[in-house]
Amino acid sequence: MANLVYKRVSTDQQSTARQDLVLAEAGIEDPVVFEEDPGTSSRLHPLQRPKFGELLTYARPGDTVHISEMFRLVRGNQHILDVLEVLHRDQLALRIHDGAFSAMDLTARHPRTGELLSTVKFMVQTLAAAGELQRDLQRELTYDGLRAAEAKGNKGGRRPALAGETITTVRTAFLAGRSIAALAREHNVSRGAVRTAVDDLLPEHVVAAEETPAPELPVTLDMPGKVADFLRSAELDAVERTALDQGVTVRRGQGYTLRVTAIPSVHRQFLARCQPLDGGHGLPAIPAQRKARREYENRVSTLTPGP
C-alpha cells in the first residue's frame, strides 16, 4: 500500500515549505510525491490538473492520498465531492493533515457493503456551508500573497499609521479615559487609525463577539430503531430527511439503531417531531416506543444547548 503525497502552490514565487512541515510532522512512510508545476492554474478542476492526474494513474487500490490542507487540492464544495467520487471508485483513501477537514476520514466505507459512507457528503456540505473551507482558503491566499510579496522584497499590507510603542501609548491612554478624537489630534492621525488600534477594547467589539454564535458541527448519535421508523413516516424538511436517509443501520439483537450524523439543532428537531410517541392528545402510548423516544432524548440532552 503506497503513500501518495500531493502538493501545490499558486505561483512560482511561493514554496511548499509550509506543506512540507505539515506532512513531515505527519510521519508519512516512504512517500511518493506528486507536485504540481507552479504555473498550473489553481482555477483548474482538481481532476484536470496534470500531477493529480498522474497520481491517480499511478495509484492502486488500497493506496492513501495525503495532502497538507484540503484547499491545496480543491477550491469548493463540488470539487470535494467530485474528488471523493473518483477516490471511492479507485478504492483510495484520503488523509488531510491540517485544517477544518483533518479530523475526518472522508473516504470511509461501510464495513458490510463497502460503499462510501453517505454521511461523508452530509458532513462535507455542512462544514462547507459553515464556511470552514472558505476560511482555510482565505488564509492560504493571504499567506501565499505575503510570501510572494516577501520574495520581491516587499512587506504585505498598508503601513499602519500607528505602530510599535505608539500603539501601546494610545491603548494605555484610551483605557485611562482619553477619547478617540483627542488621541487622534495628539498623534496627528485619523480617528479611524486610533479606532483600529483600540478596536478590541471598544464595548461594541465585546458585545459583537459575545453575540456571534459559533457554527454548529455535525454530531453522531444512535437513534433507536422505533424512533427512526416513526420519523421515516413523518413530514420532515430537506435537511432532516437527508440526515435520516444517510444514517447507518447498526443491528442490535432483534432490533436496530440508526447512527445519524447531524448538527445538534437537527437532532433537537427530530426529538420534537417524535413527541407523539409519548402518547397524549388522544393518541395511545406504546411503552416500547415511549422508552425508545426517551432513550433518544437522553442522548440529545447531552449536546450543547442551542442558542
UniProtKB/TrEMBL annotation:
Assigned protein family: Belongs to the site-specific recombinase resolvase family.
Cross-referenced CDD domains: SR_ResInv
Domain of life: Bacteria
Residue ranges occupied by any Resolvase/invertase-type recombinase catalytic domain in the UniProt entry: 2-153
SMART domains linked to this entry: Resolvase
InterPro entries for this protein: Fimbrial_Adhesin_Reg, Resolv_N, Resolvase-like_N_sf, SSR_resolvase
Record flagged with keyword Lyase: no
Organism of provenance: Streptomyces rubradiris (Streptomyces achromogenes subsp. rubradiris)
The entry's keywords: Transcription, Transcription regulation
Name of the protein this chain belongs to: Resolvase/invertase-type recombinase catalytic domain-containing protein
Lineage of the species this protein comes from: Bacteria, Bacillati, Actinomycetota, Actinomycetes, Kitasatosporales
